[in-house]
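Technical annex B. To support the medicinal chemistry partners, we prepared a structural model of the target in complex with coenzyme A, based solely on the information shown next.
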Amino acid sequence: MSMTDIIVRQETADDIRAIDVVNLSAFQGEAEAVLVTALRKSEDFIPELSLVAEIDHRIVGHILLSRAHLDQPAGQIDVLALAPMAVVPSQSHRGIGSALVRAALTKAASLGWRAIVVVGHPEFYAKFGFEKASRWGIQCPLPVPEESVQAIELIKGALAGGGAIRYPLALTEFFQQTKGAS
Ligand SMILES: CC(C)(COP(=O)(O)OP(=O)(O)OC[C@H]1O[C@@H](n2cnc3c(N)ncnc32)[C@H](O)[C@@H]1OP(=O)(O)O)[C@@H](O)C(=O)NCCC(=O)NCCS
C-alpha cells in the first residue's frame, strides 16, 4: 500500500456503521463508539470535521473534532477538541493516523478555527506541531495526566490568553467514566 491509496474525506450517513466498527476494533470496547454517536447528535458536532480514511472503498480510520471552549477571565474563545481518533489494528503503523491528523488540521484551518486541544500520546501529536497545553497556561478539568493535554494554534497567537478547557458534555462524561484510559 502506498500513501496515495489513502483517501481522507468527510463522513457520510452511509459510513456510520463502519466508523463504529473502526472504533470498536481500535479501542477494543464500545466506549469510544458510544462517544462518537453522542457527539454526532450534539450541538458541538461539526460535520466537516468528522473525517474517515478509506482504502479500496473500505473505512480504515476515523477522526473527530468537535467544538469546545477556552474560558478566560475576559470571556471565552471557541476551539476544537480532537477526540477520538482510531485506525483499525490491521492497518496501523502505516501512516493512516498521520494522514487523518494532517487532513483535519488543514480542514479546520480552512474553516477558520483558531486552535485545537487534544488528550493523547505526546510523541504522536508532536509530529504535527502540538505542544503541551500548559505552555500557554491552559488548564484541563479532566482526570488525565498533564503531559497528555496538548494544543496547537491554527492562527498565530490564538492561545496566548490561556484559559480553562470546557469540553463538549459527552466528552467530559466519557473522560470521567474512562478516566482518560484511551
Ligand atoms: C493511535 C493510532 C490512531 C495511530 O494510527 P496509525 O495509523 O497507526 O498512525 P501512524 O501510522 O500515522 O503513526 C504511527 C506512529 O504513531 C505513534 N503511536 C501510535 N500509537 C501510539 C501509542 N499507543 N503510543 C505512542 N505512540 C503511538 C508511533 O510513533 C507510531 O510510529 P511507528 O509506526 O513507527 O511505531 C492507532 O494506533 C489507534 O487507533 N490506536 C488505538 C486507539 C487510540 O489509541 N487512539 C488515540 C487516542 S484517541
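Notes passed to the chemistry partners:
The CA atoms of residues 24 and 30 lie 5 Å apart.
The radius of gyration is 15 Å.
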